[in-house]
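User: I'm putting together a small comparison set for a docking exercise, and I want a reference complex before I start. The sequence is below, and the ligand is iron/sulfur cluster. Could you produce the 3D structure with the ligand included, as structure tokens?
Assistant: Of course. I'll restate your input first, then give the structure tokens for the complex.
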Amino acid sequence: MTTLRVVLGDQLSATLSSLRDLAPGDVVLLAEVMDECTYVPHHKQKIALVLSAMRHFAHRLTARGITVDYVRLDAATNSQSLRGEVLRAATQHAASRIVVTEPGEFRVLQDINTWHLAAGCEVEIRWDDRFLCSIRQFRDWAADRKTLRMEFFYREMRRGHDLLMDEDAPCGGKWNYDAENRRRLPPGQKLPQRPLFPPDAITREVMALVAVRFPDNFGTLEGFSWPVDAASAEAALQDFLTHRLADFGDWQDAMTADAPFMFHSLISTSLNLGLLDPLEICQRAEEAYRSGAAPLNAVEGFIRQILGWREFIRGVYWLRMPDYARLNALGASRALPAFYWTAKTRMRCMAQAIGQTRDHAYAHHIQRLMVTGNFALLAGLDPAAVDEWYLAVYADAYEWVEMPNVRGMALFADGGVVGSKPYAASGAYINKMSDYCAGCAYDVKDSAGANACPFNALYWDFIARHEERFAGNTRMAMPLATMRKMAPAKLAGLRTRAASLLHALEQGETI
Ligand code: FAD
Ligand code: DLZ
Ligand code: SF4
């Protein structure tokens, strides 16, 4: 009686639920397939990362004496779909049962739900307990609430997992030190180096494959430096805990030119592949606080991202799919400008965020939210196109985490499920949190002139465009009041400037 255990490309954890109770004769299937490599035009580094990590994981299983059916994406196999490979393997190994851990994307779950019909055997879908809140637990938490707020979810998670708690109270007396996570980087501030993980032979082989099979995909392969197995992911985590965690809190929201990584942890790629365990990360961060190695604003800020935001976002995805993928509360429909792919724009903040995305398949949270996301929100870009862009260009992007961040947090396309108000901001915010504006072709202090920062006019045009919708939102009262107090001629000037910018975008002109 052979059980076929299917491990998806982002399920590379030794303790994965589908790999428990392995019996002699069982076969583990890992399949590199075209469909998963092409369902969005992934960044070259993302494909290389996933395939290299899959190959490393398979080697690890084989070394433990486990039988692995590994399908390589090369001309000889011509592997097209997960479904096709599962059916082929089920027949080849005469499987009497298929076991798989629930996937990270709705479309894959839909497919898995029909495997039993095609394979003619039982398919057991196991709970993914690599997450700290199960889909059912989140559903129960959400059931009797009118609105879902990350902050309240986070407090329950802190209590439930006994993280940063002194008895029943949060460490330091406050749950959230967000207000202490917003410092601007002072000039001359020394920045740490990103830990480097140069490609080994397996990664180099995969990079060569990607270069041949996906030559026109976005991004460069040259700077590839991601952890591809559990040991290098652990080294990346330790490097962060030792060298950057202490300063993470202060500069969490800061941005500076030509420094993509700053004090960020760079662990999302490893976490999302299953190479690191979220609870252990939080516990080790807490240890750093308890031992005096890192201050509370840093450790709480970091734990909030993993225990709070990451779990909350996943909960929203599974609670609201498949409808969530169609939400467009603000009726946005403009096409994605070409500069999202070329980085050729006079807006320095956008050129920086997109340029480093091309070079590293990475941008940190505030760049994703307040630069590229904010521009897409203000310019009314089509959420489906923006969604696809984010899913394609970041090495850590899988739909369960990308979509609620994009449609919910950045675009407010969900009308307020993820956040209570849109994260809309003018150039003043970007100027406050970065040094981009000093070297920009546009003038951040100007709003309506020919050389005025585009974010300024677009911001006021956005508020004016959606005045009626935002009128009932108390958190939008301030910008609405400010707009209403504006001299009509001033607002008209801003809206004229916004109209000309939007027209230029529609004409495919570079702004
Ligand atoms: P750090 O800044 O060091 O944060 C630590 C960890 O916290 C991250 O590794 C991540 O696991 C977690 N985290 C932080 N914020 C979030 C969040 N909002 N949602 C979920 N987890 C969070 N994250 C992804 O993993 N994949 C995505 O596809 C993705 N798309 C995003 C799109 C937009 C528009 C926005 C605003 C955010 C997105 N994020 C996404 C969240 C966040 O930007 C990244 O997790 C983070 O930048 C990864 O870099 P880091 O590991 O250095 O994170
Ligand atoms: C992202 C990705 C890529 C590029 N390639 C593969 C692959 O060849 N085989 C595979 O099993 N998984 C791959 N993945 C990850 C899947 O897309 C991921 O498991 C689903 O999106 C669910 O999160
Ligand atoms: Fe961005 Fe405007 Fe600043 Fe230029 S001036 S960097 S466009 S915010």
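Residues 334 and 381 are 4 Å apart (CA to CA). The first helix runs from residue 34 to 38.
User: Thanks, that's exactly what I needed.
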